[in-house]
Amino acid sequence: MTQRIITLDVRPDFRSGAHPCDKIQNALGRVADGEALRLLVPFEPVPLFEVARTKGLTHDAKQIAGGDWEVLFSRGLATETQTTARGEKHSCGCGCSATEPSEIVDVDARGLEPPQPMVKILEALTSLPDDASLSARTDRRPVHLYPILEARGFRGESQEQSDGSFITKIVRS
Q1: How far apart (Å, rounded) are the C-alpha atoms in residues 43 and 13?
Q2: Which of these, 9, 49, 82, 114, could form a disulfide with 40 (CB 3.0-4.6 Å)?
Q3: What is this structure's pTM?
Q4: Measured between alpha carbons, how far is 150 from 172 in angstroms, rounded to an integer?
Q5: d(CA 163, CA 59)
Q6: Is the pLDDT of residue 144 over 80?
Q7: Mean pLDDT score across all residues of the chain
Q8: pLDDT tens digits, residue range 103-128?
Q9: 109, 117 Cβ separation under 8 angstroms
Q10: Cβ-proximal residues to 107 (8 Å cutoff; 6+ apart), any chain
Q11: pLDDT of residue 101
Q12: For residues 53-80, b (16+ Cβ closer than 10 Å) or e, as one string?
């Protein structure tokens, strides 16, 4: 039996600063037996894996050209090996709204190999409350992050610290 694959590309939504969580949740809820949802996103949607598992969906995630991610969700028995504790818990599971809004959201992305610091920062930005800013600590100056921030309606300024790390303050433009 051939599996029908439905593609949902939310990369333009995220890049424009929109939060496509409802779109993703609705698509996950409509995956039927014999179907799969191919989700294209600009970062690995780790919190979404647990949400999908609770809906009886398994996933197969891989990074594709340009640093984006392709995740194939299909109906089946989800296993613990497909879930991860790396992501923060968000109310909807896809990272669009933080559980507790705050004035400054701190992200420590030190000790990660590129592009993971940028992915972690971008994931945090998807849940940043409108009135909050983000403070990200990295091992390197995140030069590749600046144009992405600008494209999403943010601006960032990095300061080198005495230990050689960088703190980047990110605010909405």
Answers
A1: 13
A2: 9
A3: 0.48
A4: 9
A5: 40
A6: yes
A7: 81
A8: 688 999 999 988 889 889 998 888 88
A9: yes
A10: 120, 121, 124, 134, 135, 136, 137
A11: 34
A12: beeebbbebeeeeeeebbbbbbbeebee
The pair of three-digit structure tokens given for residue 62, joined into one six-digit string: 């891989």
The continuous run of DSSP H or E covering 133 comes out as: strand 133-138
Which domains, ranges and CATH numbers included, belong to the chain? 4-82 (3.30.110.40), 104-172 (3.30.110.40)
Considering 49-63, 84-98, 151-165, the range whose residues carry the highest mean pLDDT is: 151-165
For residue 109, which of 134, 81, 79 has the smallest C-alpha distance?
Answer: 134
Q: Which residues contact 69 (CB under 8 A, 6 or more apart)?
A: 40, 41, 42, 43, 44, 45, 61, 62, 63
**Residue 3: per-residue pLDDT:** 74
How many other CB atoms sit within 10 Å of the CB of residue 125?
25
Token pair 């050209």 in the structure block, residue: 65
| Helix%, strand%, coil% for the chain, nearest 5 | 25, 30, 40
Q: Which residues make Cβ contacts (< 8 Å) with residue 160, sequence separation at least 6? A: 141, 166
Alpha-carbon distance of 94 to 30, in angstroms, equals: 16
The three-state secondary structure class of 106 is: strand
The CA dihedral of 142, 94, 152, 9, to the nearest 10 degrees, is 110
- pLDDT of 90 strictly over 60: no
